[in-house]
Amino acid sequence: MNFPYSSKKWQKISMAAVLTTVLGVGSLTAYANTGTDEAKATETSTQAEQSADTAKPANAEEPKAAAKEATAESKATTTAEQTNTTTKPAATVGLENLTLEKAIEQALESNAQLETARLNVKNADLNSMLAYKTPAQMPDDMIGTLDAAKAKYVNNATIEMNRKLNALNLKATESKIKLGAQQAYYDLLYAQDDYNLKKQSLARAEAQLKVAKAAFEVGTKAKTDVLQAEMGLAGAQAALTTAQNNLEIERMDLNDFLGVDLDKKWNIIVSHKQTSPVTQTLQQAEAEALQKRVEMTQVKEELKLAELNVELVEKYSVMATYQGRIARNNVETAKLAIEQKEREISKEVAQAYYNLKAAYQAIEFQKKAQEAAAESYRLTNLRFENGLATTLEVIQAEEELSDRENQYQRAIRTYNLAVVNFQTALGN
Prior knowledge:
By secondary structure, the protein is mostly helical. It has a domain at 95-268: Outer membrane efflux proteins (OEP). 81% of the residues lie in helices and 1% in strands. The protein is built from 12 helices and 2 strands. It has helices spanning 7-23, 27-42, 46-59, 61-83, 100-110, 112-136, 146-217, 223-258, 282-292, 294-316, 322-385, 391-426, and strands spanning 96-98, 266-268. It has a two-stranded parallel ribbon with strand order 1-2. Helix 2 runs parallel beside helix 7 (146-217) and helix 9 packs across helix 11. The chain is elongated and about 105 Å long. The N and C termini lie far apart (84 Å). 29% of the residues are buried. Residues 97-124 form a coiled coil. InterPro entries: OMP_efflux, TolC-like. Belongs to the outer membrane factor (OMF) (TC 1.B.17) family.
């Protein structure tokens, strides 16, 4: 019978088969790494081959020890990948640490939108003081007409209301800036986690290609396995490049929002919200929001102003006049505005409440899915090493694991943002 390999090649294949049978899982890769040197030693002479065959039982412990070492290293790498579900801050020399609290503080200090809002409030207060002087100094006994009464009381009340609302709106703007800073921080943190996960995926693809090549060298795998592993490696490299670009974009977006140099680099310190179930009931959350939200304060102040107009009409004119009827209609309009605003706020709070509960539950589900994908990937690798799985199956298992890792990190990010949105909906 004509064989496609030379006698020396068959000696190498026979050695691989014996090692695979005796040593079990992981030995093929170890042998592939050392097979070249052994083959050279085998080619020296027939006498050396016979000596090697005679001494094989005695020397079997050496490749077995090497295989165990390689297997242990592989398991350690897999364990490290499975446990590294969140980014750990690396020791970075010369870079400023950035925590969630630091990001909020920096945004409140140098965000351009907030600075503009503060200047607008100051100008509004100054303008109100200019309009406040003359009508306010008018004595009460000199007011004899409705127009004069409005000039003194309504205008003054409007100015005071605007001052109050300006201050509240500034606080609302500060809250939005805090929310934006947290969103930008978590976007950057997610991008950093995604980048690290893509690096892990690339490492797995490189290891798979190495194993496929070793198996092909000894003739236990076909060329297609190597090609599939190379395709998997190329895909992992492309994904890593995309993740790196996204990381740079998110970093610039954060710097832009914080009002610092766009090229500034940070040492991101991981700061996740503690994942815990919602303790408030929906009714309690709605009641808190209706008490704290700036929008409710505004519509209530507008109702007070409308009621003041009615009082002045009753005192200085007749309610049956057009002005009196308009004043009463304005009161009803202000009451309807309050009811509508209550409905809007209650709806926003309910949506944020349910989103937070769903985000909390999703973390546990995604964690279980990630663990299952990691175990599936491990078992598929074992099947591959025993010739029971193809390279394509390993690549598919690795892609599933990478996807589940990303889904888990995304679930954590979604929960953190859900906490922020819920607190914002409450008016905190």
